Amino acid sequence: MYSSNKPLEKLNIFSFRGIQMRTFHLTWMAFFLCFFGWFGLAPLMTVIKTDLGLTKEQIGNIVIASVAATVIARIAIGKLCDSWGPRKTYAALMGICSVPVMTVGLVHSYEGFLLFRLAIGVIGASFVITQFHTSVMFDKKIVGTANAVAGGWGNLGGGVTNMVMPLIFTGFIGAGYLPESAWRLAMIVPGVMLLIFSFLYYRFTKDTPAGNFDEASISGASVVKTKGTLALAAKDPRTWALFLAYGACFGIEITFDNIAALYFFENFDTTLAVAGMLAGTFGFMNLFARAVGGIVADKVGRKFGMAGKGRLLALLLALEGIGIAIFAQSGSLAVAVITMLAFAMFLKMANGVTYAIVPFINPKAIGSVSGIVGAGGNVGAVLAGFLFKSSSISYSQAFVYIGVAIACVAAVVALINFNKNTETTASETAALETVKA
User: Fold this and answer.
1) 20 to 30 Å CA-CA from 321: which of 3, 89, 171, 360?
2) Strand-pair partners of 208
3) What does the pLDDT look like over 203-242, one tens digit per residue?
4) Whole-number Å distance between alpha carbons of 127 and 316
5) Domains and CATH numbers, the chain
6) Which of 64, 132, 39, 32 is nearest to 380 (CA)?
7) Alpha helices in 224-288 (DSSP H)
């Protein structure tokens, strides 16, 4: 049922009707483009490695830099969503970050490239805004599904980037440019798209179904802006359990997005295009896998409550860890691809389940909880990045260590009582509706 100023109780992905569905589609599209800009360099790293004369350790530092800045950025952006509103926050983030994306081609040294990769990484905070925006646009009955679909479709940018950027690069080669110039020109494409979309997002979305945060009076519904939301989020142990969980799923996802093409290229002697396509299939599973996690989480939550969602998340993380360890031992390209698709399914479902829990940790601090948990994803990616930069550890060994670490996180999540102070209480259900209104 559609209402002009209330969260929707149904997700119709084929509809653009109303501010809720228009925002839903624009927010996943924005995240898609942010992912495209964030990881546009990843499938071109074999060319950049040669052009800039990069060592394995330097590439490891670059991988870490691409996700390190996002840790702080996600926490800050989450707070801004609670106080400034998602509309202005998203528009500003895309506009500002389009600059380093477009101009990264100006660098000619490892140090300069590292700094640009760090700056571009800030755009990864876009995920927090997408999850906040869908959380306030949809009813608690369906919010897990809405968050998962929006996040998953946005994450598609990681897969599409691995497939499309080599084609854009090849297009510039075909136009007569040398490889050392073609990769630089290719990055202008996602940068321009981000800049254009920042204006579209500001023009065609609103902070909540009832209106924007800066409107004094909004047609019978008030927008509540709570002070001290970061402290409210940080003092709840469930926030930090999800912080660890997201580091073990999304953190590994973006690490794999960064390293997959290079891994296939070097370990299985594929061409750059084939390596990009194989890496792209990993990201392309976000078309459905993360959504499946959100849908299953909503169903489990209705039957078994938050405790059921927590156990589901622990199970998926355990299966993900086992899958990654098996992938690391693959002796052939076919086996590697099959095991990659298997662990990718569990990983992306875990992403969806995590953010099916986030909106209910503290309904008065959705942005801050989302920011801290989102930052956990990047902390996980940073820690994984240190494994891949080590000269004494092979990429295959790094994946085995990661698999073991994920299994340990799964055990921690299984011990957490997610039922504590959840949406099952009448007072917090009312609070959630107030924030959404």
Assistant:
1) 360
2) 211
3) 999 999 988 988 744 443 444 555 667 888 999 999 999 9
4) 21
5) 18-436 (1.20.1250.20)
6) 64
7) 229-234, 237-267, 272-284
